[in-house]
């Protein structure tokens, strides 16, 4: 008997020391016991219980999450009560004009910690901030965590279809099980809500921008209402992408002309029905007259006509319309300029509830783009910044690419719209042009995979997006550090090794795929792997040669006054930075200039030598990433370590693929020898082309 008990104890201890295989499901909300006993004891004294004033669903949710987190982290029960004495954490809604609607305060007071905010959601955010503080191993002394979001609508956009597929999704299928809804509520919806609320996301678009009209039917509205019911206590509202042609497709009308009274009445009636089922419905996202989607231009109307009609259909409901500016017509000049040409003249013509949603760059979520010229150019229209978290052009779920730096780079870019310091962030948060509404959107990278994002480090991109949506002044490095501590390990050497990888990963990816400002040279349709030789497609602006313009003389797209003159779309201060090919920052050089192969760059190398050097050093850097990851091994869950290590091996193989494909192809045009010291690829271009064909399933 004694022996059996002893064995049992040993088994339990063993299991505890090893931890259970970490399948990534818990994301950064890991509430494993703090290893440091002193730290635990200090917090235990501050968290004898939780006292919550009020019984609303959101406050109860906040208390439950705090309880769950603290019990795990501190390793002992933390009761929740209506009131409590010394050492109880008080949760309270309290008016505080300095905090806006959603800001929180977590402070140490005489009797213990208090978490307050002007709304229930604010208190929930405060609880997550407190948990983050404990999780990252910080002390409670003189606690004063105060923060409020800089952007009002912080959106996560799904590109999910009714049949469960996810457009450009690389982490399994959709998490939304439409066929089972509204009766079956997958418990995963709640964990999804927790994750989003923990980083401050307060709105989700449930379906693809290439929308099915189905979502507007009564049948689907009931399903959407069921999801909204799960998300509501977490301060999250639901939104829908709409198909512009819905009045024809499901409404039985002969037209979807926004100025047609019957069309207007149809939208108004549909909207009212939606609000009956979902009183806090957030509104609509629209992709119109883009990539074959229908839109108001089909009837000779403008984007503003369409957006305003839809805004009108919202009536007095508290909803908004996010109208996407991602448009480019076949055969009408430099694609870089087209969204600008369509939308800029409409500035001032949009109704109050309309925001125009603009991708971070002018082409399409490339690994590095200059900021979109519409930022700063539509002062009378609130603009939503849209970034892509799913790695469509960044190696899917195979390549480790932390997107914090990419998002930050765009937010910090200076539009010079109102002189120096007119950053994209200030345009987006509304402060530059004094807008009363502001929004930011991230295209989700999650799916039904157990670990949500396929690549375990993809979770960092969801996390970083949310944190930056809340506060764009946070640093990308700080967020990487926070995420690593919460998700992977708090062991200092491991944190350093891993965060170095995260922080460098995007630049490394750019180097081995599209250095010096190359863009859109990826495999056709699938958008994976290199295909710089692609010259034939349904439209010229879907080929690679359209963008890199490699010829015997040089490489790059001339967008100066002697070329497409896209640079003229930027304010003089911004344009100035890129205008001159000898002073243009090298990261943007080929975005704006056609540069002779033999031109000497600021690095002292010729364009050709710099280009090839970047491809080689970029691919080699993946080996450095592997070594760093290996250094962190002792501190990591073994299964997770192995998974990422394997993905890094694929990443290296594919970095070499990119390198060899691009170096050999551009060499076939430049006729330049490789600089001394760089070994020639061992396979011919023909072989690589065949490999690409296999990838593309052609
Ligand atoms: C492109 C994607 C396409 C999307 C489109 C969009 O390839 O699947 O529908 O963006 O944003 O990058 O509408």
Automatic annotation (TrEMBL):
<keyword id="KW-0119">Carbohydrate metabolism</keyword>
<dbReference type="Pfam" id="PF07477">
    <property type="entry name" value="Glyco_hydro_67C"/>
</dbReference>
<comment type="subunit">
    <text>Homodimer.</text>
</comment>
<dbReference type="InterPro" id="IPR017853">
    <property type="entry name" value="GH"/>
</dbReference>
<feature type="active site" description="Proton acceptor">
    <location>
        <position position="392"/>
    </location>
</feature>
<keyword id="KW-0858">Xylan degradation</keyword>
<keyword id="KW-0378">Hydrolase</keyword>
<feature type="active site" description="Proton donor">
    <location>
        <position position="291"/>
    </location>
</feature>
<dbReference type="GO" id="GO:0005576">
    <property type="term" value="C:extracellular region"/>
</dbReference>
<dbReference type="InterPro" id="IPR005154">
    <property type="entry name" value="Glyco_hydro_67_aGlcAse_N"/>
</dbReference>
<comment type="similarity">
    <text>Belongs to the glycosyl hydrolase 67 family.</text>
</comment>
<dbReference type="InterPro" id="IPR037054">
    <property type="entry name" value="A-glucoronidase_C_sf"/>
</dbReference>
<feature type="domain" description="Alpha glucuronidase N-terminal">
    <location>
        <begin position="27"/>
        <end position="130"/>
    </location>
</feature>
<keyword id="KW-0326">Glycosidase</keyword>
<feature type="signal peptide">
    <location>
        <begin position="1"/>
        <end position="21"/>
    </location>
</feature>
<dbReference type="Pfam" id="PF03648">
    <property type="entry name" value="Glyco_hydro_67N"/>
</dbReference>
<dbReference type="InterPro" id="IPR011100">
    <property type="entry name" value="Glyco_hydro_67_cat"/>
</dbReference>
<dbReference type="Pfam" id="PF07488">
    <property type="entry name" value="Glyco_hydro_67M"/>
</dbReference>
<dbReference type="InterPro" id="IPR029018">
    <property type="entry name" value="Hex-like_dom2"/>
</dbReference>
<feature type="active site" description="Proton acceptor">
    <location>
        <position position="364"/>
    </location>
</feature>
<dbReference type="GO" id="GO:0045493">
    <property type="term" value="P:xylan catabolic process"/>
</dbReference>
<dbReference type="InterPro" id="IPR011099">
    <property type="entry name" value="Glyco_hydro_67_C"/>
</dbReference>
<dbReference type="InterPro" id="IPR011395">
    <property type="entry name" value="Glyco_hydro_67_aGlcAse"/>
</dbReference>
<feature type="domain" description="Glycosyl hydrolase family 67 catalytic">
    <location>
        <begin position="134"/>
        <end position="452"/>
    </location>
</feature>
<protein>
    <recommendedName>
        <fullName>Xylan alpha-1,2-glucuronidase</fullName>
        <ecNumber>3.2.1.131</ecNumber>
    </recommendedName>
</protein>
<dbReference type="GO" id="GO:0046559">
    <property type="term" value="F:alpha-glucuronidase activity"/>
</dbReference>
<keyword id="KW-0732">Signal</keyword>
<dbReference type="GO" id="GO:0033939">
    <property type="term" value="F:xylan alpha-1,2-glucuronosidase activity"/>
</dbReference>
<feature type="domain" description="Glycosyl hydrolase family 67 C-terminal">
    <location>
        <begin position="453"/>
        <end position="675"/>
    </location>
</feature>
<keyword id="KW-0624">Polysaccharide degradation</keyword>
